[in-house]
Design goal:
Length: about 240
Protein backbone atom coordinates (compact mmCIF):
# COMPACT_ATOMS: atom_id res chain seq x y z
CA UNK A 1 0.00 0.00 0.00
CA UNK A 2 1.37 3.40 -0.98
CA UNK A 3 1.40 6.30 1.48
CA UNK A 4 -0.60 9.41 0.61
CA UNK A 5 1.42 12.56 0.02
CA UNK A 6 -0.64 15.09 1.91
CA UNK A 7 -0.66 17.52 4.81
CA UNK A 8 -1.49 14.72 7.23
CA UNK A 9 1.80 13.02 6.37
CA UNK A 10 3.69 16.29 6.68
CA UNK A 11 2.22 16.90 10.13
CA UNK A 12 2.83 13.30 11.22
CA UNK A 13 6.50 13.29 10.28
CA UNK A 14 7.08 16.77 11.70
CA UNK A 15 5.44 15.84 15.00
CA UNK A 16 7.48 12.64 15.34
CA UNK A 17 10.74 14.48 14.69
CA UNK A 18 9.88 17.38 17.00
CA UNK A 19 9.15 15.02 19.88
CA UNK A 20 12.39 13.05 19.49
CA UNK A 21 15.39 13.64 21.75
CA UNK A 22 17.99 13.66 19.00
CA UNK A 23 21.33 11.95 19.47
CA UNK A 24 24.20 14.32 18.66
CA UNK A 25 27.71 12.98 18.02
CA UNK A 26 30.49 15.40 18.96
CA UNK A 27 33.69 13.88 17.61
CA UNK A 28 36.42 16.38 16.62
CA UNK A 29 38.29 13.63 14.79
CA UNK A 30 35.50 13.35 12.23
CA UNK A 31 34.30 15.80 9.58
CA UNK A 32 30.68 16.94 9.66
CA UNK A 33 28.33 16.28 6.75
CA UNK A 34 24.61 16.57 6.11
CA UNK A 35 22.22 14.63 3.89
CA UNK A 36 18.74 15.56 2.68
CA UNK A 37 15.75 13.23 2.91
CA UNK A 38 13.45 15.02 0.48
CA UNK A 39 9.80 13.93 0.65
CA UNK A 40 8.10 14.25 -2.73
CA UNK A 41 5.10 12.84 -4.61
CA UNK A 42 5.35 10.03 -7.17
CA UNK A 43 3.23 7.92 -9.49
CA UNK A 44 3.03 4.10 -9.42
CA UNK A 45 4.65 2.52 -12.47
CA UNK A 46 6.62 5.58 -13.56
CA UNK A 47 9.90 3.73 -12.94
CA UNK A 48 9.50 0.40 -14.72
CA UNK A 49 12.84 0.94 -16.49
CA UNK A 50 16.00 1.98 -14.65
CA UNK A 51 17.41 5.06 -16.45
CA UNK A 52 21.01 4.31 -15.42
CA UNK A 53 23.44 2.00 -17.28
CA UNK A 54 23.60 -0.44 -14.38
CA UNK A 55 26.07 -2.87 -15.95
CA UNK A 56 28.56 -0.03 -16.33
CA UNK A 57 27.72 1.58 -12.99
CA UNK A 58 27.94 -1.60 -10.97
CA UNK A 59 31.67 -1.74 -11.75
CA UNK A 60 32.04 -5.43 -10.99
CA UNK A 61 30.64 -5.06 -7.46
CA UNK A 62 29.40 -8.48 -6.34
CA UNK A 63 25.68 -8.54 -5.67
CA UNK A 64 24.60 -10.14 -2.39
CA UNK A 65 21.84 -12.29 -3.87
CA UNK A 66 21.40 -14.09 -7.19
CA UNK A 67 17.92 -12.59 -7.49
CA UNK A 68 19.24 -9.02 -7.32
CA UNK A 69 20.57 -7.19 -10.37
CA UNK A 70 21.19 -3.72 -8.90
CA UNK A 71 18.34 -1.99 -10.72
CA UNK A 72 16.02 0.42 -8.92
CA UNK A 73 12.65 -0.32 -10.55
CA UNK A 74 8.99 -0.49 -9.47
CA UNK A 75 9.59 1.47 -6.28
CA UNK A 76 7.63 4.67 -7.01
CA UNK A 77 4.11 5.48 -5.87
CA UNK A 78 2.62 7.99 -3.44
CA UNK A 79 4.82 9.75 -0.89
CA UNK A 80 8.46 9.11 -1.77
CA UNK A 81 12.01 10.25 -1.07
CA UNK A 82 14.79 11.09 -3.53
CA UNK A 83 17.62 8.55 -3.80
CA UNK A 84 20.75 9.09 -5.90
CA UNK A 85 22.95 6.66 -7.75
CA UNK A 86 26.45 8.13 -7.48
CA UNK A 87 28.81 8.11 -10.45
CA UNK A 88 31.71 5.68 -10.67
CA UNK A 89 34.11 8.58 -11.33
CA UNK A 90 34.06 9.99 -7.80
CA UNK A 91 37.20 9.68 -5.66
CA UNK A 92 35.32 8.36 -2.61
CA UNK A 93 32.18 6.24 -2.22
CA UNK A 94 31.81 6.01 -5.98
CA UNK A 95 29.05 3.87 -7.51
CA UNK A 96 27.07 3.75 -4.27
CA UNK A 97 23.50 4.62 -3.36
CA UNK A 98 23.24 7.90 -1.48
CA UNK A 99 20.96 10.66 -0.34
CA UNK A 100 21.80 14.14 -1.62
CA UNK A 101 24.42 15.61 0.68
CA UNK A 102 28.03 16.32 1.54
CA UNK A 103 30.38 17.94 4.03
CA UNK A 104 29.66 21.26 5.68
CA UNK A 105 31.47 24.33 4.40
CA UNK A 106 33.07 26.61 7.02
CA UNK A 107 30.37 28.47 8.93
CA UNK A 108 27.50 26.40 7.55
CA UNK A 109 24.75 24.81 9.60
CA UNK A 110 23.58 21.30 8.78
CA UNK A 111 20.40 22.73 7.26
CA UNK A 112 22.41 25.15 5.10
CA UNK A 113 24.62 22.30 3.90
CA UNK A 114 21.72 19.95 3.14
CA UNK A 115 19.90 22.61 1.12
CA UNK A 116 23.07 23.63 -0.74
CA UNK A 117 24.04 20.06 -1.59
CA UNK A 118 20.49 19.30 -2.73
CA UNK A 119 20.70 22.21 -5.15
CA UNK A 120 24.21 21.37 -6.36
CA UNK A 121 23.69 17.62 -6.78
CA UNK A 122 20.13 17.32 -8.06
CA UNK A 123 19.18 20.85 -9.10
CA UNK A 124 16.41 21.34 -6.53
CA UNK A 125 16.25 24.56 -4.53
CA UNK A 126 14.25 24.56 -1.30
CA UNK A 127 14.10 27.03 1.59
CA UNK A 128 14.43 26.71 5.36
CA UNK A 129 10.63 26.53 5.55
CA UNK A 130 10.77 23.06 3.98
CA UNK A 131 12.62 21.56 6.99
CA UNK A 132 10.52 19.07 8.98
CA UNK A 133 13.30 18.18 11.41
CA UNK A 134 16.52 16.22 11.95
CA UNK A 135 17.27 12.57 12.59
CA UNK A 136 20.07 11.28 14.83
CA UNK A 137 23.70 11.84 13.86
CA UNK A 138 25.35 8.80 12.29
CA UNK A 139 29.16 8.42 12.65
CA UNK A 140 30.71 6.65 9.67
CA UNK A 141 33.76 4.42 9.37
CA UNK A 142 35.15 6.74 6.70
CA UNK A 143 35.58 9.68 9.08
CA UNK A 144 32.31 11.63 9.00
CA UNK A 145 29.43 12.46 11.28
CA UNK A 146 26.30 12.64 9.12
CA UNK A 147 23.26 14.67 10.15
CA UNK A 148 20.09 13.76 8.17
CA UNK A 149 17.76 16.70 7.43
CA UNK A 150 14.16 15.80 6.51
CA UNK A 151 12.63 18.18 3.96
CA UNK A 152 9.11 18.57 2.55
CA UNK A 153 9.39 18.99 -1.21
CA UNK A 154 5.84 20.24 -1.72
CA UNK A 155 5.06 18.14 -4.81
CA UNK A 156 6.84 16.03 -7.39
CA UNK A 157 9.73 18.42 -8.05
CA UNK A 158 11.96 18.01 -11.11
CA UNK A 159 15.44 16.66 -10.30
CA UNK A 160 18.24 17.72 -12.64
CA UNK A 161 21.22 15.64 -11.47
CA UNK A 162 24.74 17.01 -11.78
CA UNK A 163 26.48 14.61 -14.21
CA UNK A 164 29.78 14.92 -12.33
CA UNK A 165 28.26 13.42 -9.18
CA UNK A 166 24.97 11.66 -9.88
CA UNK A 167 24.02 9.13 -12.56
CA UNK A 168 20.29 9.22 -11.83
CA UNK A 169 17.76 10.32 -9.20
CA UNK A 170 14.92 8.00 -8.17
CA UNK A 171 11.58 8.60 -6.45
CA UNK A 172 11.34 5.74 -3.96
CA UNK A 173 7.96 5.32 -2.26
CA UNK A 174 8.08 5.52 1.52
CA UNK A 175 6.00 2.35 1.63
CA UNK A 176 9.06 0.52 0.28
CA UNK A 177 10.78 1.15 3.63
CA UNK A 178 8.04 -0.92 5.28
CA UNK A 179 8.47 -4.02 3.13
CA UNK A 180 7.99 -7.25 5.13
CA UNK A 181 11.57 -8.29 4.30
CA UNK A 182 13.02 -5.04 5.65
CA UNK A 183 15.28 -4.42 7.49
CA UNK A 184 17.79 -7.25 7.12
CA UNK A 185 20.76 -7.80 9.42
CA UNK A 186 23.89 -9.84 8.78
CA UNK A 187 27.13 -10.44 10.67
CA UNK A 188 30.68 -9.92 9.43
CA UNK A 189 33.97 -11.13 10.95
CA UNK A 190 35.38 -7.59 11.01
CA UNK A 191 32.85 -6.26 13.55
CA UNK A 192 30.64 -7.33 16.44
CA UNK A 193 27.96 -4.89 15.33
CA UNK A 194 25.16 -6.06 12.99
CA UNK A 195 25.32 -4.83 9.38
CA UNK A 196 21.99 -3.35 8.31
CA UNK A 197 20.58 -3.88 4.81
CA UNK A 198 17.47 -2.16 3.44
CA UNK A 199 15.97 -3.97 0.42
CA UNK A 200 14.86 -1.48 -2.25
CA UNK A 201 14.08 -2.37 -5.84
CA UNK A 202 16.53 -5.04 -6.95
CA UNK A 203 19.35 -4.05 -4.61
CA UNK A 204 20.25 -3.62 -0.94
CA UNK A 205 20.96 -0.23 0.63
CA UNK A 206 23.66 -0.38 3.32
CA UNK A 207 24.67 2.02 6.08
CA UNK A 208 25.15 4.88 6.35
CA UNK A 209 22.31 5.51 3.88
CA UNK A 210 20.52 2.34 4.95
CA UNK A 211 20.71 3.27 8.63
CA UNK A 212 19.36 6.77 7.94
CA UNK A 213 16.47 5.35 5.91
CA UNK A 214 15.68 2.84 8.65
CA UNK A 215 15.36 5.64 11.20
CA UNK A 216 13.21 7.57 8.73
CA UNK A 217 10.86 4.59 8.78
CA UNK A 218 11.00 3.89 12.50
CA UNK A 219 10.84 7.48 13.74
CA UNK A 220 9.44 9.56 10.89
CA UNK A 221 6.67 7.16 9.82
CA UNK A 222 6.05 4.98 12.88
CA UNK A 223 7.08 7.19 15.80
CA UNK A 224 9.55 4.60 17.15
CA UNK A 225 12.56 6.15 18.93
CA UNK A 226 14.93 3.22 18.20
CA UNK A 227 18.53 4.31 17.59
CA UNK A 228 20.50 3.33 14.48
CA UNK A 229 23.94 4.86 15.04
CA UNK A 230 25.39 1.53 16.25
CA UNK A 231 24.35 -0.35 13.12
CA UNK A 232 27.39 -1.37 11.10
CA UNK A 233 28.44 -0.56 7.54
CA UNK A 234 29.75 -3.18 5.09
CA UNK A 235 33.52 -3.25 4.75
CA UNK A 236 33.47 -1.71 1.25
CA UNK A 237 31.98 1.48 2.79
CA UNK A 238 34.67 1.84 5.46
CA UNK A 239 37.05 3.73 3.16
Amino acid sequence: MTIRYDEALREQVGTHLAGHRRRVVDDPSKRHAAVAIVLVDSEPGEDRIDPAPVDEWIGGRPLPDQNLDGRMVDVAGGAAFLLCRRTSRLNSHSAQWALPGGRLDPGETVVDAALRELHEEVGIKLSDESVLGLLDDYPTRSGYVITPVVLWGGGRLDPQPSPDEVVAVYRVGLHQLQRPDSPRFITIPESERPVVQIPLGNDLIHAPTGAVLLQMRWLGLEGRPDRVDELEQPVFAWR
